[in-house]
Amino acid sequence: MLEIDGSQKSGSGTILRLSVALAGILNEPLHIYKIRQRRPQPGLRPQHLEAVLTAAKICNAETKGAKLGSRELWFKPTEIAGGKVHAEIGTAGSIPMLLLTILPLCVFARKTVRVHVIKGGTDVRHAPTINYIKHVLLPMLERMGLKMKLDV
After folding, report:
1. Under 8 Å between Cβ of 101 and 73
2. Cα-only R_g, the chain
3. What is the pLDDT of residues 12-38, one digit of tens each?
C-alpha cells in the first residue's frame, strides 16, 4: 500500500492528485493522510473530491473517506478500464486540475476514455487554464503519440 503524508512540502492538492494517479497506474492501494493540512481550508475541497471520484470511475477504485473536508483517503484501484465518465465539480474549482489528475490514467486505459465535465472553472487562480491544456499540453502529448481531444 502506498502511504502518503499529504502535508509534505507545500501540502497542496498536487500531492493528492499525483498520488491518486500513481496508485491507479501501479494498481496499488493508496492511503493518504493530512490532506492539505496547512491550507486555510484543509481537507478535500469540491475540486479535489471530484478529481478523486472521477479517477475512481476510470480505474474502478473503491474509496473510503471520499467526502468534503476529509483529511484522510483510501483509494483502491482494480483496473484502468476507461469508458465514459461524467464529472461535476459544482463550484468554480479548476477543471484543468481535474484533467491533470485523470490524464495519466487515460494513457493506460484498456479502452477510450470520454470525460464530460460540467460546472467547473476554466481559468482559476493558482491553476493552469483550459487554454493551456488545449493549446499547449495536449499538442505536446499528441506529439508523443497520444490521441486526445478537448472541446470547451
Report:
1. no
2. 14
3. 889 999 999 999 999 999 999 999 998
Under 8 Å CB-to-CB from 109, ≥6 apart: which residues? 58, 80, 81, 82
Cell numbers placing 80: 484502468
Do 107 and 66 form a contact (C-beta atoms < 8 A)? Answer: no
pLDDT of residue 141: 93
Domain boundaries, the chain: 2-143
State the pTM of this model: 0.93
Q: Residue 1: its pLDDT value, please?
A: 95
- Residue 93 CB partners (closer than 8 Å, separation 6+): 45, 46, 47, 48, 50, 120, 121, 124
Q: What pLDDT sits at residue 35?
A: 96
* Grid-cell match 509534505, residue found: 8
Phi, psi of 123 (to 5 degrees): -140, 85
Residue position matching grid coordinates 465514459: 84
| Candidate CATH numbers 3.65.10.20, 3.90.1110.10, 3.10.50.40, 1.10.3720.10; the one for domain 2-143 | 3.65.10.20
